[in-house]
Amino acid sequence: MKIKRLPKMDDNNGWLNILPPLPPPDSALGEFRFDFAIVGAGYVGLAAARRLGELLPDCSIVLLDAGRVGNNAAGRSSGFAIDQAHNIRARDFAGVVDAEREQLAVNRAGQDYLREAVRSHRIPCDWDEAGKIHAAATVRGASRLNAYAKSLDLLGAEYDRLDADRLKEITGSEFYIAGLYTPGTILVQPAALVRGLATTLPGNVTLFEDSPVTAMDLGVPHRLTLPGAAVQARTLILANNGFAGQFGYYRKELLPIATWGSLTRPLTGDEARILGGRSSWGIVPADPFGTSVRRMTDGRILIRNVYSYNPGLNPVERDRTWSRARHETSLRNRFPMLPGLHFDHTWGGPLCLSRNGEPVFGALETDVFGAFCLNGVGIARGTIYGKLLAEMVVGVSTPLLDIMLKAGRPSGTPPQPFLGWGVRLNFAKRRHDAGLEM
Asked: Strand locations in 58-97, DSSP E?
């Protein structure tokens, strides 16, 4: 099978651009034989490789990424490692209580595995267990917060209500009228986190970057073709999210989406004094189609909004230009006191949704396993999916694995062009309905 579409990330990723330059990549050249081959060095692939290396120190593992770790989708998120996630398909944040409790347990286990790696290896990634604020700018948004609070009450979850004065004290902005603070979220610099995870893998894991898989031949062993190499492996693990469809799995069930973020330059001393507020915080929107905002300790401000349908899988320049204009409006609405503050970087990141919100997890066929379709919650959920998949492959049984094995699978989608029309119309309506929350 030839792989027709490969990840092609541009050089606009602000998270990566503010880090020191990357060293030259170690790319696959020649012929190799490994016990395990993992395709995709995002959160799923990194966690699967780490856990396999821990459980099977005498086995050989190769982790293949088509680009550079940190510039892939994992390094392009907004940096919220969330325990309880909002769902962009939902009309509010409420969900089925038992399912929500299970998802909380799964996501928190992912946070725990990340925390262990970051602390034990002292990975510098601006790790901040600051929680998140769900903030509303409109009466309609405030009603969404009330619905979310009811679901938190059913879960017995901790939260604090924030009024406009309290939100201004935290953010320096008078834009928001109501908020809910939940303590479970961890804020990170995503590109720094995945780079750190990649450089601290167990010694029996080999990472090849700039090494896309262009063809595969399944069998005993599986054979992967790369531009300058051939890799054979007894067991294959797919951790490449929406691109897994290019390998023949769930091709008609995965919805490829791009999300967009912009990052400003650091605030000057005068701008920081004018703005006031805390030096670091993170807001997710009351409306799922609204705007996420972060202020980093270095004074930069992140704006993230806009979902665009992305059938080509890779973000495209016309969407970047359009999204940057939306981000400028969002920035001005929230921080009119900073007229000279503009963006240094605007970038898109691919993610994968399913119509019914279900993931892909487990065996795909003999000695082929996969975990993908993370539905926009990549950091914590992707990490635990990778860890649990490695444990499944090895034969380790846990209650969390049981939760994953009983989960549903992505439902089918309408054929093209109806799918594209429907998704674009839905997104346009949801953006319109979000209004000032964007």
From this structure: 61-64, 80-81
Structure confidence by residue, pLDDT tens digits, 254-269: 999 999 999 999 999 9
CA dist 48 and 183 (Å) reads 27
Averaged pLDDT score across all residues of the chain: 94
**Residue pair 81/380 in contact by the 8 Å Cβ criterion:** yes
C-alpha distances out from residue 177 to 134, 159, 166, 395, Å: 11, 17, 9, 51
Give the residue among 142, 185, 121 at the shortest CA–CA distance from 437. 142
User: What type of residue sits at position 211?
Assistant: S
Please state the length of the chain. Answer: 438
Please tell me the distance from the alpha carbon of residue 366 to that of residue 165, in angstroms, as a whole number: 58
Contact 233, 242 (CB under 8 A): no
Alpha helices by DSSP H, 244-343 = 269-275, 317-334
Say whether 175 sits in a helix, a strand or coil: coil
Give the strand pairing for 301-309 and 292-295.
antiparallel
In whole angstroms, what is the distance from residue 25 CA to residue 69 CA?
Answer: 10
Other Cβ atoms within 10 Å of 236 Cβ, number: 24
Inter-CA distances, 31 with 163, 223, 229, Å: 61, 10, 6
- Convert the pLDDT of each residue in 116-158 to its tens digit: 999 999 999 999 999 999 999 999 999 999 988 988 898 889 9
**402 dihedral zone (left: phi>0; alpha: psi -120 to 50; beta):** alpha
What is the percent of the chain where pLDDT is above 70? 97
The pTM is what? 0.95
Instruction: Compute the distance between CA of residue 200 and CA of residue 215 in angstroms, rounded to an integer.
Output: 29
What three-state secondary structure class fits 294?
Answer: strand
Tell me the two tokens of residue 361: 């997890």
**Cβ–Cβ < 8 Å for 74, 194:** yes
Closest CA to 384 of 36, 64, 109: 109
pLDDT for the residue numbered 88: 46
- 3-state class of 346 per DSSP? strand
Q: Cα–chain-centroid distance for residue 145?
A: 23
